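Workshop exercise sheet. Pairs work together: one partner reads the sequence aloud, the other fills in the structure field after running the prediction. Swap roles for the next sheet.
Pair: D.N. / O.F.
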Amino acid sequence: MRRIDRFDGRSKFTTWMHRVVVNACLDELRRRGRRPVPAPVDEQPLAAVDRPVDDSVTDRLDIEEALAQLPEAFRVPVVLCDQLGLSYEDIATEMSIAPGTVRSRISRGRRRLAALLSGNPDDPGQRHTGEQT
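Structure field:
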């Protein structure tokens, strides 16, 4: 809301605000990619800690790590759809690409994400896409 003065009324307020939110999310994804990964510590293994580890936290960290490995062309549409709940049409508008391209990138991004999470980054389904990472 710091830049409400930049809203010029050429579009609906909700459209403008939506773009602000999308840009903020994209900026955060870029910042995460530049953050250094901490070096492993040679202390007690995590499993030996007295308190139980929440599986949802571990899963979330695994997903974020796998997302960081996806090319931006796949990561952005997957995040906008699966984490922000945007429709394919909204994503197409925000990214200035065709809705069919959005569907394709989300499908391929999810496939690559599943392969990374399953420990098989060389998913055989990727060989036939013609896409380079």
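Discussion prompt: Residues 124-133 have pLDDT under 50 and may be disordered. What would you look at next?
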